[in-house]
Structure formats: C-alpha cells, structure tokens
Amino acid sequence: MLRKGFKDAADDLRYLLSRGYNREGAVSFVGDKHQLDRTERLVLYRAVYDSKTAEDHCQKRLQIDAVADKVLGVDGYNVIITVESMLMDKPLIICDDGFVRDVSAVHGSHKPTGVTEDALKTILSFLREYRPLRVGFFYDSQVSHSGELASVTRHLLKDHAISGKTEAVKKADTSALKYGEIVASSDAVLIEKAKKLVDLAGELAKRSAQARIVNLREV
Fold this sequence. Notes:
Blueprint: H1 6-18, H2 23-33, H3 38-47, H4 51-60, E1 61-62, E2 71-75, H5 76-87, E3 92-94, E4 100-102, H6 114-128, E5 134-140, H7 146-159, E6 164-169, H8 172-179, E7 182-184, H9 188-193, E8 197-198, H10 200-208, E9 213-215
Parallel strand pairs: 1-8, 2-5, 2-7, 3-9, 5-6, 7-8
Antiparallel strand pairs: 3-4
C-alpha cells in the first residue's frame, strides 16, 4: 500500500508539524513534493503526528479493560467504519500516536450494509467481555441513515445484554464526551477534547487482524 519512499514523506510532515505548520497545507505540500497518491496522502493526514502531539494522545489512551464498570461513550461512525474496514480487508494503520485508523474517508457518505451489522455485532461481542456499566452509541444525524443505524444498534445492545442507549445527534463527539466516563474513538479532534479514551476499534483489530495492520513506525 505504501511505497518505499513514503517514510521520507512522513518524516518531512513530522518536521513541518513540529514547527507549527497547518496540517492540511503541510500534507498538500509534502504530497506534491513526493508525488503521493490519494491513499498515501490520506495516511499522512490521518496517521502522522509531531512527537509532542503523539505523546499527548498516548497519555490519554487506556487499555480496553479500563472500561470495566465504567460508563462508555462511543463515537459511533468512527468505531464502526474502522471495524468495517477490518472486516472488508481494507488498510488499517497503527499511527504515530498509537491509535489504529482506517483510510476509507467515508464518514459523511457512510451507508449501512450487511457488513455494518456484522461490525456492530463484532464490536458488542468484544465489548461484553470487558463489562462496561453502560454504553452509549452516538451517530451524527447529518449522515444519511443515522436514525436507522441508531435503531439497529439499540436492538443489538439488547440482544447482547448490554445496558445503554443509542441516538442520532447533531454532534456525536460532544454527546459521547458528555455521556461517558471514558470515550471510544480514534478521532483526533475528540482525542484533544477528551481526558480518557479507549481505542475500541483498534483493540479489536489488533486481536482479530494483527497481521494486516501496517505499523507506520515500521514502514
């Protein structure tokens, strides 16, 4: 997926970010310089961080067993899309900050499929092992079919005997933050706002598809 020269591009971006350059502009500059394709630019944008930001994110990331007897707020689309990518053998990256991210870039255009329900069942079966007190799934209401997805999730929570709630809301990240003692997400904006997070999709992927995850630091 990533060419041999990608490491040089990643190092260039880390350098620019460490000196305060805007992420979007820096990715564009580095992508043009190294003639990167769309997927490689997405990897840069989602996976590469300066050392301070990466360390700050790492400090907030808890092991999955930390959710035991805690209220967990789930950034729904963020977690589901990553697990869908895993189930469809699409690329997953262990990023500079230790979080696992997909490079599908489909959040705003996501449409539920049979894989979506499989992803939800996989997530909930995994979560049930760690006994959270309650789990809230929140989906951005501006994304088509979010209400439908919330309804499916609500039924599956009951099927898996997990206490909680699920809603389509205007700002899923804000709702997940307000609801949970711990938040499940790998979204960088939400990581900046949260105090404690688990990389729910990443932990699941490491268990189920470790061999197919690309570690950016080993590229």
